[in-house]
Amino acid sequence: MKAVTYDTDPELAYIYVHPPEKNRNKRSEELKVNDCILLDIDQDGKIAGFEGFGEPAHLCAPFTGKSRLYVKDSDGYHFRVRQHASIRSCYTVYGVTFCFSDGDDQEFAGFDLDGTMNHSAFLQRLTEK
């Protein structure tokens, strides 16, 4: 199951939040606080996945092909590219909280999926045991 793809030529990473076969996007929009992240919004108004350019892409590249991406707890699913960095700022949109290790929302650290994400079978397959 591919949850993260990385293309070296344009240095672009893509992270699927929905299963790729259900990833029928209605529109794309830039994350308001960080122009290196482009959101793909599905027909239900939820994030289907997102593209990372520049630093976010480089940080996500090592996760390409990994079968376990998320950590799950009572708050939802969590993905971190900077395991030991403290989170200094967050931005929530469409049920996804993007986390940054700086106060200016530029140093991508990962994201959290809240309880409204109803794709638990897909996410559970990608979760640490």
What would your notes on this structure say?
By secondary structure, the protein is mainly β. It has one domain. The protein is built from two helices and ten strands, in the order βββββαβββββα. The protein has helices spanning 55-60, 120-125; strands spanning 4-7, 12-16, 25-31, 34-42, 47-53, 71-73, 76-80, 89-93, 96-100, 108-113. The strands form two sheets. Strands 1-2-5-4-3 form a five-stranded antiparallel beta sheet. It has a five-stranded antiparallel beta sheet with strand order 6-7-10-9-8. Strand 1 (4-7) and strand 2 form a beta hairpin. The model has no long low-confidence stretch (mean pLDDT 85).
Please specify the SSE layout and strand pairing.
Blueprint: E1 4-7, E2 12-16, E3 25-31, E4 34-42, E5 47-53, H1 55-60, E6 71-73, E7 76-80, E8 89-93, E9 96-100, E10 108-113, H2 120-125
Antiparallel strand pairs: 1-2, 2-5, 3-4, 4-5, 6-7, 7-10, 8-9, 9-10
List keywords for this structure.
mainly beta; 5-stranded antiparallel sheet; globular
Quick structural summary:
With 129 residues, the chain is mostly beta strands. Helix content is 9%, strand content 43%.
Residues in helix, %:
under 10%
Q: Structural class, from secondary structure content?
A: mainly beta
Mind describing the biggest β-sheet? 5 strands, antiparallel
Instruction: Bin the strand percentage.
Output: 35-45%
Elements, N to C (H/E): EEEEEHEEEEEH
Shape: globular
Provide a count of the helices: 2
> Major sheet: order of its strands?
1-2-5-4-3
